[in-house]
From TrEMBL:
Its EC number is 4.1.99.12. It comes from the Eukaryota. GO terms for molecular function: 3,4-dihydroxy-2-butanone-4-phosphate synthase activity; metal ion binding. It comes from Cyberlindnera fabianii (Yeast). This is 3,4-dihydroxy-2-butanone 4-phosphate synthase. Belongs to the DHBP synthase family.
Amino acid sequence: MFTPIPEAIEAFKRGEFLIVMDDESRENEGDLIIAAELTTTQAMAFLVRHSSGFICVPLEESRADELNLPPMCINNEDKHSTAYTVTVDAAAGTTGISAQDRSLTVRLLGSSTSVATDFTRPGHICPLRAKDGLLKVRRGHTEAGVQLAKLAGLQPAACISELVRDEDGLMMRLPDCESFAQKHGIKIITIEQLVEYSESL
């Protein structure tokens, strides 16, 4: 059912999506996750079509600081303490909302050479500040995305969004995610697997 982590990392390195399930006792949802630097226009269109459409980009906190991406609010009241920053668009884009513009913004967020002035604020992409220590500190999709990128030897940034069901717009749970993965040829892993693998290194 779940893909071994080394196999998933190789797929991630090739620019493929992974479905990452978090703990059943937490959000109990599956996110589509792809490396930020490898997010094409086609990948963005697929992500928007099958997800909530709320596209986020987990980054290391230090990188968020370098890009002038402060927290969205001073007092974070989110149930799971998701660290949203101010939203951004690529300064070189047009409207910011097209799959082409959104993928450009994501790739810039995943580039080591980008600077703060490469982005306009607010925008249509929401960066997330991953906790220092990643999954050792917080077992969320934010930290999982950055962890996957690092394990794959890529820039530590990912592009993520929650999978939703076509018929009613509700979040996909594991059975839904398994069907979706089989239909689209996408590998599924869990955050628990990722934690165990990272601790074994």
